[in-house]
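Priority: medium. Attachment 1 of 2:
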């Protein structure tokens, strides 16, 4: 019984310490709602439209490339000035390819990087790591 009580006290202490942490756990103050345009490091143009509820982000994108125009969904989270999420191709020959992206938001500029690029894409689709720099429209 004494061992159970000791573990209960430790569990409560850990829970209280986490609750009092200075790390933010609530919704993000960063607003990325709206339309963004930009290019990646290999010259592919992107149009991105995002909606946000708290830290949860959903949206869509269109990418324009010489060999394959693609489009798809954006799903991710924003916390502070950090975004992390996925780009999922839903149309064209590149359908079902997914890129994991992460990056930062500074004012009206957002930069996303993917170290693996789109996985599951056929050879005719853009391949490899990329960095995408976006600027919020209407700003």
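Attachment 2 of 2:
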């Amino acid at each position: 019984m004494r061992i159970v009580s000791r573990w209960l006290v430790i569990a409560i202490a850990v829970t209280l310490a986490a609750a009092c942490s200075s790390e933010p756990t609530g919704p993000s103050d960063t607003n990325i709602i709206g339309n963004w345009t930009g290019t990646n490091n290999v010259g592919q143009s992107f149009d991105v439209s995002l909606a946000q509820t708290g830290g949860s982000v959903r949206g869509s994108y269109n990418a324009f490339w010489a060999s394959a125009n693609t489009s798809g969904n954006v799903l991710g989270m924003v916390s502070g000035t950090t975004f992390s999420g996925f780009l999922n191709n839903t149309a064209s020959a590149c359908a079902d390819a997914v890129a994991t992206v992460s990056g930062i938001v500074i004012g009206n500029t957002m930069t996303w990087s993917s170290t693996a690029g789109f996985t599951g894409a056929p050879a005719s689709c853009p391949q490899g790591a990329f960095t995408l720099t976006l600027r919020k429209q209407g700003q």
